[in-house]
Design goal:
Blueprint: H1 2-25, H2 42-71, H3 96-101, H4 104-107, E1 112-115, H5 122-135, E2 140-144, H6 145-157, H7 161-170, E3 173-177, H8 186-199, E4 204-209, H9 213-216, H10 223-234, E5 238-241, H11 248-260
Length: about 270
């Protein structure tokens, strides 16, 4: 009987510790006091812990959704939605995608550059990494290069350029999709350089491009800044060459068409001509 009481006491103590930890995580130190829960029956403690854990998880999920929306990411994507094998990206360094998905480069404040044709999976991989970074508490902004160019122009016209540049400089992770300089005039390009220069060495920038950055960076409107910009993109960056990949969107569309043209047994349906 004594052994049973000892076990019950140990179980209660473990649950009380879990309750204390949850309140500490919720930044409620007054409620993270073990003495408040001593002597409460184990069944009541267990029910309270379950309710508190459920509420904590719901609050975390709601907070994540809000941060996702604020970052500019429409929908969460997880690693299991990104399908590839050793043959998918023939020019990519072995293990580089696995390394990117760990987001260690974000913790190390390094950049990630992905280059390849449309449909290669650059955007999907960028969103997966962005979602994981947000879940781990990093602040993030997700924008296309066109939107950044437009917003820089609007900020300059509205005398709010300094504030906008600081906002892009300050986030832990800045994702820039479809980076080209076709939409950058000279003043906008100089403002964009200020953004990248302010992030240099202290923040992570993720870039996707349909072409090789080393080639089109030469078209940067300010020639003096172009080489400096290239260095800031590439220094100690993780590089994923996605050239040579099959168009994922086209492959998915073909798969859907093939699936709808088969019967329940998986046999191809015959088409009848009129």
């Amino acid at each position: 009987m004594l052994l049973k009481q000892d076990n019950a006491s140990e179980d209660s103590g473990a649950v009380i510790n879990n309750i204390k930890t949850l309140f500490q995580e919720m930044n409620l130190p007054r409620l993270a006091n073990r003495s408040l829960y001593m002597g409460i029956p184990f069944s009541a403690l267990e029910a309270f812990h379950l309710a508190l854990s459920t509420q904590r998880n719901e609050d975390n999920e709601k907070r994540f959704r809000n941060r996702l929306r604020y970052a500019g990411v429409i929908k969460e994507r997880t690693p299991n939605t990104f399908k590839w094998n050793d043959d998918t990206y023939p020019f990519a360094e072995h293990g580089v995608i696995e390394s990117a998905l760990t987001i260690d480069f974000v913790r190390q404040r390094k950049n990630l550059v992905m280059a390849g044709p449309p449909g290669a999976g650059k955007s999907l991989l960028a969103i997966i990494i962005a979602c994981k970074a947000i879940r781990e508490g990093f602040s993030l902004k997700y924008k296309t290069a066109h939107n950044i160019a437009t917003e820089l122009q609007e900020a300059r016209a509205g005398n709010s350029l300094t504030g906008y540049i600081k906002k892009l400089q300050s986030c832990d992770v800045l994702v820039i999709e479809d980076l080209t300089f076709s939409t950058f005039d000279l003043k906008t390009a100089q403002s964009f350089f200020s953004v990248i220069d302010g992030r240099y060495g202290s923040k992570t920038t993720i870039i996707t491009s349909n072409s090789n950055i080393k080639e089109w960076v030469q078209d940067f409107p300010d020639e003096i800044m172009s080489s400096a910009l290239l260095g800031r993109f590439y220094e100690e960056a993780l590089l994923i060459n996605m050239n040579g990949a099959e168009d994922m969107r086209l492959k998915l569309a073909k798969g859907m068409i093939e699936a709808t043209s088969k019967d329940e047994g998986g046999n191809k349906l015959e088409t009848q001509s009129s």
